[in-house]
Design brief:
The protein is an alpha+beta fold and 213 residues long. The chain folds into two domains: 46-131, 2-Layer Sandwich (wza like fold); 136-212, Outer membrane lipoprotein wza domain like (Outer membrane lipoprotein wza fold like, Roll). 22% of the residues lie in helices and 23% in strands. It has four helices and ten strands. The strands form three sheets. Strands 7-6-10-8-9 form a five-stranded mixed sheet, covered by helices on one side. The chain has a three-stranded antiparallel sheet with strand order 2-1-5. Strands 3-4 form a two-stranded antiparallel ribbon. Strand 3 and strand 4 (96-99) form a beta hairpin.
């Protein structure tokens, strides 16, 4: 057999082997989405290790549906996280039902300490607010983020609007209205940012509704 046919046969055999190897090698798939493992808002729930809400423990008044952490030093069996019931009470080991709504975290901690003193020697108690659910304000209309917002610290109308992500293109910034029960407060955004009529930049209260037409 001449060298030319032999060379051709070897070349064909090598090409066939390379083709078979390529068919068996899995091709890389598309890279995973960078957001595929990020939980949605609905999936994020307060739990062990959750950071406290930014409230002042000496002045914030606890309300129904607030989510609390009761921590008793060196007593894990009587520590835990609880949600304030609609009747304003919580239930704790040893103590049973206890009024929480209407008290500050510091006052509630003192009350828990007094009740636990009947069973434990000099208990040290702290109360943290993990999630504020009892106090909120609402923003609707021509802003980038609408809905309910927790009222954790004293918040002005201007601060609330800033937290809403800014205005949409056709927002009427001079005709913003705050509804508080049967009261209506007007808010001219353009005036306030220019330092005029600052008295209209009121502090929000629980249940206030800001409308941006």
């Amino acid at each position: 057999m001449s060298s030319e046919p032999l060379t051709r046969l070897i070349t064909m055999a090598l090409l066939a082997a390379l083709g078979a190897a390529g068919a068996q090698t899995p091709r890389p798939g598309p890279p995973p989405s960078p957001t595929s493992n990020i939980p949605t808002i609905e999936e994020i729930k307060p739990g062990p290790g959750s950071p406290s809400a930014p409230v002042d423990p000496a002045s914030y008044v606890i309300g129904p549906e607030d989510y609390l952490r009761i921590r008793v030093w060196r007593e894990p069996d009587v520590s835990g996280e609880v949600t304030v019931r609609p009747d304003g009470k919580i239930t704790l080991p040893l103590i049973g039902d206890l009024q929480a709504a209407g008290r500050t975290p510091q006052a509630l901690a003192q009350n828990v300490t007094e009740r636990l003193s009947e069973f434990l020697n000099r208990p040290e108690v702290t109360v943290e607010v993990l999630a504020v659910r009892s106090k909120k304000y609402y923003i609707t209309g021509q802003v980038n983020r609408t809905g309910a917002f927790p009222l954790t610290v004293p918040t002005t109308v201007l601060e609330a609007l800033s937290g809403a992500g800014g205005f949409q293109q056709w927002a009427k910034r001079k005709k913003i209205v705050i509804l508080r029960g049967n009261k209506r407060f007007k808010f001219n955004y353009n005036e306030v940012i220019e330092g005029k009529n600052l008295e209209q930049n009121i502090y929000l209260e629980n249940g206030d509704h800001i409308i941006v037409p």
